[in-house]
Protein: ATP synthase subunit a
Organism: Dactylosporangium siamense
Amino acid sequence: MVSGLVLAEVPFPPSVDDIFPPSLWESAPEWLTKFSLFLWLAVAVVLIYFLVSYRDPKIVPTKKQWLAESIYGFVREGVAKDVIGHEGLRFAPYLASLFCFILVGNIFSIVPLIQVSPNAHIAFPAVLALSTYGLYLYQGFKKHGFVGYLKHATVLPAPWFMQPLLLPIEALQAFILQPVTLALRLFANMFAGHMLLLVFTLGGFALLNAESLFLKPVALVSWAMTIALTFFELLIAALQAYVFTLLTANYLAGTLAEEH
């Protein structure tokens, strides 16, 4: 089973339609698809793991507690504190939650019988990016005031005659490009990884069923590529979770800075 569909029912080559699955059952609402199910599953995995790990904390931590503390400590010290500074410690819970949720959701792309990340659907990275967007706008307006933050985000320390050119560029970057690219980066990587795994997996079956005897052994090469890409996808899954969290911290640092 690939991407929740029986191989015999999947046309080859795979298409963009594979990212828009039907409802879980015939009478279910359109939004209740396997992506929605995997989204809530990712939330449940993160919540349950941390609740179980900290249910009875020990001075000498268990393996579960050690891993949970290590993940939070990595985000707290390596992202929140290093990028934002001491003020960033108050954002550590949000950043750690973001990192864990994206990481688990991304890893679904290589889990048997799931094999697709909810982040391969643009709606979910868009919501995550909008959450970050709302957070750093709120923090910016809170720290600098409405007019002060607009000036902080768009006015560079440059000669006055350069401002007509720089102002629209900075406004476009701060208020449109940052959230858009944040969502597109995560979506594009997970979508591309899913499609590559589909191509090589289904390509192996297509070659195996080919009429030419010379093409049948190539199916093994196609499946070997699937295995190699699966390990590569695991690396990409972790990297994209880290990049999304790091950029979120970077945008918050820019918002909270005294100067542009």
